Each structure stands twice: as C-alpha cells, then as structure tokens.
Amino acid sequence: MTSGMDSILLKGGTIIDGTGAAPRQGDVLISGANITDIGSFTAPAHARVVDCHGLAVAPGFIDSHSHSDLQVLEGRSEKTAQGVTAEVVGNCGFSPYPTPPDLQLLHNFANGIFCGGDAWGWTDAKAYLDRAQHSNTTVFSLIGHGSMRIARVGDRLGPLAEPDLDWMEQTLANAFDEGACGFSTGLMYSPGASAPAAELERLCRVVSRHGKIYSTHMRDYGDHLIEAVDEQLDLARRTGCRLQISHFQAVGEGNWNKQAVALEKIENAAAKGVDVGFDCYPYIAGSTVMTQLLPQWALEDGIDGMLARLADRGERKKIAVETESGLAQGWHNVFVSSVGSQENHGLVGQTNRPHSGRAWTYQRARAQPE
Questions:
Q1: Are residues 40 and 70 in the same domain?
Q2: Alpha helices, DSSP H only, in 212-257?
Q3: Among the three residues 247, 278, 309, which one is the final residue of a domain in this structure?
Q4: What is the pLDDT of residues 161-170, one digit of tens each?
C-alpha cells in the first residue's frame, strides 16, 4: 500500500470489477492515475477518502457506438455523469473528416446525425484527434465511408471510378496512420447505400492490412436482415478484417424470428475463424434521420435533389410507394423527436399517421398536400 499526497481511497463501495466476478464490498485505493490496491484497509496518511457505501465502484464504461463526434469537443459532462470514460465516434459512415472543397456538402450529409452547426470540419484524422485530446472522455474515432465519398465525389451515387477508389484507399490508410481506430459504413444512408460490394472489399482490405476494425450499419435490419448479415460476413471472410456489426436487431414484428437465424450465422462464422462481433442497445427504439426512410436514390444530388423530386408529383408518388413498402416497423412506430424549422415544430411528438388530408411523409420536407 502507498501513502502519497495524491492518494484517493474509495471506501466501502460495491466493487464490480468487469471480470464477471460477483460484486463484493470493499475499498479501492488510487494513487496518481493508477489503482494500487483493492481490499479492506485503513486510509493512508493524507489520502482523500470518498465514502462509497451504497454506491457501485466499477471501471469506466466504454460507449462503443456514439455519434458525439462534435459534443466530445465541447467539454460536456453527460457521458462522464453516467460513468462513461471512453467513446467510439465516427459510426455508421459519418465522421467529421475528411472535408470536401464545399464544406456544406459534408454538413448536409452529417448534421442530422451530429446535431452540428456550420463551423465544423477537419481535413484529416490527425486534425480532429488533436482537438479531441482534451475531451472529458477518451475518444476513439472511426473514419466514415460516407464522409470519404462526400469529400471525394460529393453527392454522386453508384460505383466510383478507379482514381476515386485509389484516393479512398490512400485516405483510409492515412487516417489509420494518424490514429483512427477503424472504418465505418452506413449502408442504409446515401451515398453509402449505393456503394457496390467491390468498393467495400477494397477498403476492408486496407482495414485488414492495418490491423484495424470495420464497423458497419448494414444495408438492412428488417425484411432483408439475413442477406445483410451474409454480405458482411462474406466481406470479412474475403478480406480478413475484424468485423463489428452495429446495433444488431431485427426490425418489425414480422422479422423477429430472423434474429435467431442471424445470430446462428454470426456464431458459425466466428467458430470458423471470422473475427466478428456485434453490439446492441438495451431498449426497443432506434434513432435516425427521416431521410433514411426514403429510397436512397431520391437523395442523389443531396438535399436539393431530394426536395426537387418531392416537388414533382410523379416523382413524389414513386417515392411514396417505395417508402411505404420499405418500412418493416410500420408508420405507426415512427415517432418524430425533433425538426429543423420552427414552422414544423408542431410535428414534434407525433407519429407518422396520415392526418388532415395531407401526405404526412412528405409534408415534413416540402409542406406539399397530395
């Protein structure tokens, strides 16, 4: 036991050590930045004693799927107040770097997820991570596939030309050299949804060569959950990369029986040597931007392209048909938590049911009655 002026004794708490061992009551002595003893003992001279009776004493939690890319730079305390001491940001293909020549393109792409303004953006992983060094939590950043595509080709959808793929491979490798912990995709979001398997394979081979991790928001979690899992497992087999399936779930009551099938596929792949894991959240709702509910072809050319299509009666009808048929969870389970304009603030708290003779889905974007 040590007895320095910098010692802190956490006295009498319920120790949950993270090993799976049963909780036990005891004391934890911290000297400087290190835990130096665990047991039951008298406080050393000059140690600060914290009475932890009735409290849990545990290692800091790792928030392995966060979208706090901008909030970690603001000195905020919400996460640490919950015991979170480390966060993985850059998930689902969204990262605040690299930046395109027109910064507004990246803001249009990511602000719905980041809750950001118009003054953020970093050229590369190093610039961002340098800023994140002073965060209240330890920040691990994935570089987002969608952000890379936006930086290189803007809102363009579909397969990319060879020089563009070369650029993405080099940008990914550079990000790893600068400290990015891995690579993420958002394959239900435009432009990532338009990326062919060959593009993902090339990038995942870079992940494998650098010993990093590939985290994916898959192409589907509803009617095509099994096909989406198969795609990602095949990608990991072919490239040898470490695979993390983000927020694993089966969306829509009609698909709940597919979860066991998908889990079995993951377990079988792991048993055969695929380095695969998944995370999930302990509640029965998800959160995303409303544009994810639309067919992603409607987002080519970005927000302006989407609004132009919604303003066209024929295009709007086509979008409506595909949107309605693509919602495994049903409109009655879609809940609006926030909007971007004061004009539409009255929609907050509503579910997506048609009302007042108006096509609710598209009224949010264009205030266009059908």
A1: no
A2: 225-239
A3: 278
A4: 999 999 999 9
